[in-house]
Write a structure and sequence with these properties.
This protein is an alpha/beta fold and 389 residues long. The protein folds into 2 domains: 245 residues, Aspartate Aminotransferase, domain 2, CATH 3.40.640; 120 residues, Aspartate Aminotransferase, domain 1, CATH 3.90.1150.10. The strands form 4 sheets. The chain has a 7-stranded mixed beta sheet, sandwiched between helices. A 3-stranded antiparallel beta sheet has the order 11-14-13, covered by helices on one side. The chain has a two-stranded parallel sheet with strand order 1-12. Helix 4 links the parallel strand 3 and strand 4. The longest helix has 21 residues. The chain is globular, with a radius of gyration of 21 Å. Bound molecules: pyridoxal-5'-phosphate. The site of pyridoxal-5'-phosphate has 14 residues, from helix 3.
Length: 389
């Protein structure tokens, strides 16, 4: 065997996003014990920073030791017991994954579908909640498979009105657009580190409300998965001064998350959201100048995940292959019913920069040109630059 040296890529897909040099440097600092006093200080800082980022001052916020899907699993497995009714909104891949998991938890799942490329249908969710008492309403705030933002405030308010606990998938939204647990009065929110937080994959920040913790305490059966049982986890993450062993925290990954949070608050949350929005406007202007069309209606678009239609007669996969081979640039393909129909361009975290926008437009123009399409790169860069200032 030999040491592995990965190629240098530009990550503009649906995650992971580019990891900044300062986060990579933090990951390589010396490993300490997970009960070391110095490490416990770091844990407290991470909890406080996550509470700020979720705007969840009254929630319990911790990073789970596994990727975003673990946050989803923790939310559903802690709140649901066999026979509980769960209303789950599906408008892309990740809502579908929640349906599968809730079924495995033994819940009676009421699935509310919306077409891929459109937000969750609030009226249809309301009808499902009104049709019988539900313990949980779960939905995806930022659907990464389509690039659509749903109305989290309205959906969480519906859950409250109907006495259900809300579960909000914020894997792609956290750090890219505002997430506001307090204003939404949301119960369980979860995210991932490799999307807009621009740390490596492998951790899932979660927030549990008091109401959610009371519901877990009132269960008649134990949570089925031991590692993600929030009551056991909190004896480790919650016990200031009196921590006991639960699992060995991924020490160095947490250094990376901590550094990415330091960077985010140094820049300022509002500034980070404005940067994502500006890069999105610049990219869309450039793409349209290349003659390309966006999938999602402007009012529902996510700045951090841009879905565009593959033009008639263009080989979708050949374009991505050329972007990677000639430009070291990774973008995403379509999933499910959008397979072969769209590309997904991420502008997440450190990948939301003017340089990324310009490189992406240049590389796409090259790849489209290689397919015999007439495109005007100068016009595209000018259109983007009008937003980059
Ligand atoms: C990426 C993603 C997940 C899953 O996260 P992993 O880190 O891949 O496990 C869940 N929900 C959404 C909306 C995502 O974008």
């Amino acid at each position: 065997m030999q040491s592995f040296h990965p190629p240098r890529r530009i990550l503009m897909g649906p995650g992971p996003s580019d990891v900044s040099p300062r986060v990579l440097a933090a990951l390589s600092r010396p490993t300490v014990g997970h009960l070391d006093p110095a490490f416990q200080d770091l844990m407290e800082e991470i909890k406080a920073a996550l509470a700020r980022l979720f705007n969840a001052p009254d929630h319990v916020c911790v990073p789970l030791p596994a990727p975003g899907t673990a946050g989803m699993e923790a939310a559903l497995m802690n709140l649901l017991e066999p026979g509980d009714r769960a209303v789950i909104a599906v408008n892309g891949v990740f809502g579908g994954r929640m349906v599968d998991m809730a079924g495995r938890a033994g819940a009676e799942v009421v699935r509310v579908d919306a077409p891929w490329g459109e937000p969750v249908n609030v009226a249809a969710v309301e009808a499902a909640l009104a049709s019988g008492p539900a313990k949980v309403l779960a939905f995806v705030h930022a659907e990464t498979s389509t690039g659509v933002r749903s109305d989290a405030a309205a959906l969480c308010a519906l859950a409250r009105r109907h006495g259900a606990l809300s579960i909000v998938d914020c894997v792609t939204s956290l750090g890219g657009v505002p997430v506001d647990a307090a204003a939404w009065d949301a119960d369980v929110l979860y995210s991932g580190t490799q999307k807009c937080l621009s740390a490596p994959p492998g951790l899932s920040p979660v927030a549990f409300s008091r109401r959610a913790l009371e519901a877990v305490a009132a269960r008649t059966t134990p949570v089925r998965n031991w590692l993600l049982d929030v009551s056991l986890l909190m004896a480790y993450w919650g016990g200031e001064g009196g921590r006991t062993y639960h699992h060995t925290a991924p020490i160095n990954s947490l250094y990376g998350l901590h550094e990415s949070l330091v960077a985010l608050f140094e820049e300022g949350q509002q500034a980070v959201f404005v940067r994502h929005a500006r890069m999105h406007e610049a990219l869309v202007a450039g793409l349209e100048a290349l003659g390309l069309q966006m999938l999602v209606a402007p009012e529902h678009r996510l700045p951090q995940l841009n879905t565009l239609r593959v033009p008639e007669g263009v080989d979708e996969a050949a374009v991505r292959t050329r972007l990677l081979a000639h430009w070291d640039l990774e973008i995403g393909a379509g999933l499910g019913p959008l397979k072969g129909q769209v590309w997904r361009i991420g502008l997440m975290g450190a990948s939301a920069s003017p340089w990324h926008v310009r490189v992406c437009l240049t590389a796409l123009a090259d790849a489209l040109g290689a397919q015999g399409r007439q495109v005007d790169l100068t016009a595209a860069l000018d259109a983007a630059d009008a937003h980059l200032g």
